[in-house]
Design brief:
Blueprint (H helix, E strand, L loop, with lengths): L2 H24 L12 E2 L2 E2 L19 E5 L2 E6 L2 E7 L3 E7 L1 E6 L2 E2 L2 E6 L6 E3 L4 E6 L2 E10 L2 E10 L16 E5 L4 E10 L12 E8 L9 H4 L5 E8 L6 H4 L11 E5 L6 E5 L3 E3 L7 E3 L14 E6 L2 E6 L3 E4 L6 E4 L4 H44 L2 H10 L8 E2 L2 H7 L8 E5 L2 E7 L5 E7 L7 H12 L9 E5 L6 E5 L6 H6 L9 H21 L4 E2 L8 E3 L5 E3 L6 E2 L7 E2 L11 H6 L1 E2 L1 H17 L15 H10 L3 H4 L2 H6 L2 H14 L10 H11 L16 H6 L5 E4 L2 E4 L17
Parallel strand pairs: 26-30
Antiparallel strand pairs: 1-2, 3-4, 4-5, 5-6, 6-17, 7-8, 7-16, 9-15, 10-17, 11-14, 11-16, 12-13, 12-15, 18-19, 20-21, 22-23, 24-25, 27-28, 28-29, 29-31, 30-31, 32-35, 33-34, 36-37, 38-39
Helix pairs in contact: 1-4, 5-7, 9-11, 9-16, 11-15, 15-16
InterPro entries: EGF, EGF-like_Ca-bd_dom, EGF-type_Asp/Asn_hydroxyl_site, EGF_Ca-bd_CS, Kinase-like_dom_sf, NOTCH1_EGF-like, Prot_kinase_dom, Ser/Thr_kinase_AS
GO molecular function: ATP binding; calcium ion binding; polysaccharide binding; protein serine/threonine kinase activity
Catalytic activity: L-seryl-[protein] + ATP = O-phospho-L-seryl-[protein] + ADP + H(+); L-threonyl-[protein] + ATP = O-phospho-L-threonyl-[protein] + ADP + H(+)
């Protein structure tokens, strides 16, 4: 074969490789029926399961996507699903049966049950085990196995930790056994031989539970750590129908799709589907099993001179150019063709130079196509994320008082080292925050938001625009954003000294929270919230005031952050009606009952923060009595009993002026009034706190808190220039703030 023939063949193979790569990138196998959602929260929901009856194989496989505290959770029957496998298992969380002796009170036994109402689901015998942990504990597992009763159990006995072996569950501190096949409905009972009286010092409890294999490995530490654990992961097997493969193969109810096979369950009470060898995907969909390109995986045709070719459901090996098949040794081998050394040398050199030239041309063309595709994709994301709408608002706003820069994606990728996990400084329900350094040396906090729903784009952009106009020394500052990525990126100033919550709970010798500092911080927070309610361009309800959202800058000044659930309202509005969102312990009881959030709801949350500053206590704590687990209720009860100084923080009692402390406590009590109308406004709170403060250590007087937006505009410089597909508005502020989330209307 001549030089040009070899060159043409190399060209053909390069083209095949490029087309194969493009096809592989373009094809993604679906897991759900057309027009059906395939995810609830972070859990994928593959067919035959579905989020509605029309999207599942039958009602037994309908998963309810329930929302709780801002997070979506899949629920099947009475079980919360954490993972669904097309290999016939799904994972859930199962309660732990506990039997504890505590403060003279002991329950003779504890029971918990699971009732699976459909024959399609059974407890997996291959994936689970029954575990009993304790030192004078016996537990039993009762259930049904194909309509037959079943009972088994084991006892765990020990008098000390001396003979316990970490990783061993053979009876000393821990015992276990396998789950029988076809196990469906069960009850677990756990009890103590002698009320734990001999082992209370190191093991006051006994536990019994079903756990997924590999998730529980016994150690001595578990004797106490299991007291705080409520659930363990458990695996259930699922099957389709009630008959065997032979029974249903020719029936209309048979669901295995093309290029798949049927597999009987262990109990012959149903079947599953599996893609044939050489295929992968969802075998329950009509065309869910797709051909696998075996040649892309580990090298299968690995003999000298061999090449690989993909076939439908399989692959084949062949001898490449310059080699031919030889079976003289009883094995298919590829050996070189017999020709002169000079011809082979010329062919080799020609092929090498031709291939090098072709590869160079291919790489150049590939880079050009790639850059065009990236530019097109960035424009698509920019439009989808509301970039055009933001540009329109910026260009039409003659009185814009705050600079906001639209960054390009490469600048933020460089700033965060391509969003390295080492740069992550926080995660939340609405995004992940990275620490970054801009090209001008500024340290920033860059948040990668979760996907914004298409119907909420206008609200999302409007809230970014409003947030960019908030100018207050004690409120988080938005520097800019990037809308040309798959999800929006928001750039905020960075705060180095953590949250108020951390400083209230952790001793800090370099910066102790003195009474004067606590009073100053409360004044700064109150002033910021009053500004949001009254002095911003549009009144803003924060809706998540808490100590973890109060950040401290390099001078330990308070900064109000996390506007992820905030809402801007019309000036003539008195409330907004929304789904209840917030943090337990800070949530206004009146808002919880009516779903109507008012400015007094923020006052209630601030009142809880004020009590935290006074007491150093957590807003919710299991160490307090059940009636006083909520700090607000605990505080109000203590005030009514006239025992305020019994719950104050030691530093507050030691350093605080008694009259000042009592005044602040009475103000907190008024903020926590159950009737919102009887709470003070944030303006009244800020004024009263300023009045309580006896000395002014060079800080701003309250009159500074009452500046108007027009006065701020007079002291701001506004300019913007058009550059490519984004605007940049120069900023006059340089404070640093660590953000959590942007505004988002609900």
């Amino acid at each position: 074969m001549g030089f040009f023939g070899i060159l043409m063949q190399v060209t053909w193979w390069v083209g095949v490789i490029i087309l194969s790569e493009l096809a592989a990138a373009a094809i993604s196998s679906p897991i759900a029926l057309p027009n059906c959602l395939d995810r609830c929260g972070n859990v994928k929901i593959p067919y035959p399961f579905g989020l509605s009856e029309g999207c599942s194989i039958d009602p037994n496989f309908v998963v309810n996507c329930s929302q709780s505290f801002g997070q979506f959770q899949p629920i099947l029957g009475n079980l919360r699903v954490t993972n669904i496998s097309l290999q016939g298992q799904f994972e859930t969380m199962m309660d732990i049966a506990k039997d504890c002796y505590e403060q003279g009170v002991h329950s003779l036994s504890t029971r918990l049950s699971l009732l699976i109402t459909t024959v399609n689901f059974t407890v997996s015998s291959a994936q689970n085990k029954f575990v009993v942990v304790g030192c004078d504990t016996d537990a039993y597992l009762y259930g049904s196995q194909q309509n037959e009763s079943y009972r088994t159990g084991c006892a765990s006995v020990c008098e000390s930790t001396r003979y316990m072996v970490n990783g061993s569950c053979s009876g000393v501190g821990c015992c276990e056994f396998d789950i029988p096949i076809g196990f469906r409905n069960f009850t677990i009972t756990s009890r103590s031989f002698d009320n734990h009286t001999k082992v209370q010092s190191f093991n006051p409890c006994g536990y019994a539970f079903i756990s997924k294999k590999g998730t529980f490995n016994f150690s001595v530490d578990f004797l106490r750590s299991l007291q705080d654990k409520e659930k363990m992961p458990m695996v259930l097997d699922w099957v389709i129908g009630t008959g065997t493969c032979e029974d249903v193969h020719n029936k209309s109810s048979y669901v295995c799709g093309g290029d798949s096979t049927c597999i009987d369950s262990n109990t012959k009470s149903g079947y599953r589907c599996k893609c044939k060898d050489g295929y992968d995907g969802n075998p329950y969909l009509p065309h869910g099993c797709q051909d696998i390109n075996e040649c892309e995986g580990p090298k299968l045709c690995n003999l000298t001179g061999q090449g690989c070719i993909n076939r439908i459901g399989s692959y084949g090996c062949f001898c490449i150019e310059g080699y031919h098949s030889d079976r003289t040794a009883g094995v298919d081998l590829c050996v070189t063709n017999q020709s002169s050394l000079q011809v082979n040398l010329l062919i080799g050199l020609g092929t090498s130079f031709g291939a090098l030239f072709l590869i160079t041309i291919t790489l150049v063309l590939f880079n050009v196509i790639k850059k065009r595709s990236e530019t097109k994709l960035k424009k698509k994301f920019f439009k989808k994320n509301g970039g055009l709408l933001l540009q329109q608002q910026l260009s039409s706003n003659e009185n814009n008082v705050q600079n906001i820069k639209l960054f390009n994606s490469k600048e933020l990728e460089k700033a965060t080292d391509h969003f390295s996990e080492n740069r992550i400084i926080g995660k939340g329900g609405q995004g992940t925050v990275f620490k970054g350094m801009l090209s001008d040396g500024r340290i920033t906090a860059i948040k990668k938001c979760n996907t914004v729903q298409e119907g909420n784009i206008e609200q999302f952009i409007n809230e970014i625009f409003i947030l960019s106009q908030i100018i207050h020394r004690n409120v988080v500052k938005l520097i800019g954003c990037c809308l040309e990525t798959a999800v929006p990126l928001l750039v905020y100033e960075f705060i180095p000294n953590g949250t108020l919550f951390q400083y209230l709970r952790e001793e800090n010798e370099e910066f102790p929270l003195t009474w004067d500092m606590r009073l100053r911080i409360s004044i700064e927070i109150a002033g910021a919230i009053f500004y949001l309610h009254s002095a911003a361009s549009s009144p803003i309800y924060h809706r998540d005031i808490k100590s973890t959202n109060i950040l401290l800058d390099e001078k330990y000044r308070a900064k109000v952050a996390d506007f992820g659930t905030s809402k801007s309202i019309a000036i003539n509005q008195t409330h907004v009606t929304t789904l209840v969102h917030g943090t337990f312990g800070y949530l206004d009881p009146e808002y919880f009952q009516t779903s109507q959030f008012t400015e007094k709801s923020d006052v209630y949350s601030f009142g809880v923060v004020l009590v935290e500053l006074l007491t150093g206590e957590k807003p919710v704590s299991s160490t307090r009595s059940e009636a006083g687990r909520s700090l607000s209720i605990y505080f109000l009860h203590t005030m009514e009993e006239n025992h305020l100084f019994d719950i104050l923080d030691d530093r507050v009692k030691k350093e605080g002026d008694k009259e000042e402390v009592i005044k602040v406590a009475n103000l907190a009590k008024r903020c926590l009034h159950l009737n919102g109308r009887k709470r003070p406004t944030m303006r009244e709170v800020a004024i009263e706190l300023q009045g309580i403060q006896k000395t002014f250590d060079g800080q701003q007087n309250y009159e500074e808190l009452q500046f108007s937006r027009s006065e701020e505009i007079e002291h701001s410089n506004v300019s913007f220039t058009s550059t490519g597909s984004f605007f940049e508005i120069a900023s006059t502020s340089s404070s640093t703030v660590l953000p959590l989330l942007p505004f988002k209307k609900i």
